[in-house]
Each structure stands twice: as C-alpha cells, then as structure tokens.
What does this fold into?
Amino acid sequence: MALIRIEDAVKRYGDVLALNNVTLSVDKGACLALVGESGSGKTTLLRAINRLTELDSGRVAVRGQPVGAIDPVQLRRSIGYVQQDGGLIPHWTCLKNAALVPALLGNHDASERGRVALGAAGLDPATFASRYPRELSGGQRQRVAIARAVAAEPDILLMDEPFGALDAITRNEAQESFAALRESARVTAVFVTHDLREALRVATRVAVMRAGQVVMESAAGEIVRDATGYAAELLEKSGVAR
It folds into this structure.
C-alpha cells in the first residue's frame, strides 16, 4: 500500500521548471532514495510532501489524504524531517532539541521520548543529553537531528542530504545507523542524495532525477544491472562497479 503518492507534480521558479510532471509512490515500510545532481528537483519534490513547497499543479497524498486538505503545521508535526545542516537550535541542549516535536504535541513524557530517541540514534543520553550542538562533531549533530525527527514516532521520515557534509568514515557510520534505525522503527522514508552509492546503502528503491523529471526508478538491488544513459553515468561518478 502506498503511504505517499505523488501525481503529475509541477513546480516552477520563474523560468526554471523544477518539477516536470513527476509521479512517484512510496509503499509503507519502504525507503525511496531520490538521486540526482544539483538542480535536478530532488529537494523540491521532498519538500512538497510536507508542504514546505507548494506545487503549481499536481497532487500529493499522504496516508491516503491529499496534503492540501491537511493543516500544514499538523502535517509537518506528523512527519519526521532532517535537513542537510541538521537545523538544531544552538542554545538548546541535545535533549531539548530531540524532545522538540513531542513537546509541541503536548506529550507529558517529551523528555523521556527525547532520551529514547537519542539512544536509538546512537548517542548515549547519559553523555549527550546536557551537551549543546557547538560541543558536538558534525556526525553527532546529525544524529541529534535524526533523534528529533523520530522522537514522536512518526510513520514517515524525510531526509534531505543529511550526511552530505560529513567525512567518509563518519558518513558510512551514519548511513549504517540510519538504516538500522529505519528498519527497527519500521518507518517509511524518502532520502535525498546526489550519491548513488549512498542510495544503494540506505534505500529499498531508487528514483534517478534529472532536470525535474524521474528518468529511472527501480528496486535498489536492480539499478546497477539495469541502469542506462544518465543513470549509468551517475553510477560511474559514484564509483559503483557494474
């Protein structure tokens, strides 16, 4: 069953056609990676799911309901979201950052949910709960951002190049941690990346985007075998052997 459904999505920024009649679906429990170079439309499409971007035409449905019929604040609080720079509040502790969404939802156990989420993201709450973002490494900050995204136990998680600024070793560790967390939480995810190698590590399906269009979509295990044209070029640039 499709938990997220995008149909004929169109978005323009002036003369630039950012999305050109994109249709995609994400089944419950799946992780779809949107892969492409800068300007391909990946982030625009991702942000249309939680209405941070409003489409010019087309339709996005979440849990069977058109997102345009859902209050945007309510929609965003029901969907985990991790942006590239983490977006942590610098003068808040890691625990307060992690517990943000449960607190906004009025959960009386928001702090405990934040602690559990920090642990699930690979950070010992006893060590990190009282620390501030400035005291963390880049990888640790992204783990706090992931903890914040999952603390309210959403069924959908949106990830916008969350590991793009990390060094290779930290990035590999973060990818493994995310894959394990997603599987254990049984969350449905959409993951934006420019790196096909990363997509193959974290996703169950891959959609390759170019100039606002999806040029290839397949199961992650099949894309190496079936890629042609631009998708094959991305495989080569990512250093994936065929």
User: Anything to note?
Assistant: Residues 168-185 form the longest helix (18 residues).
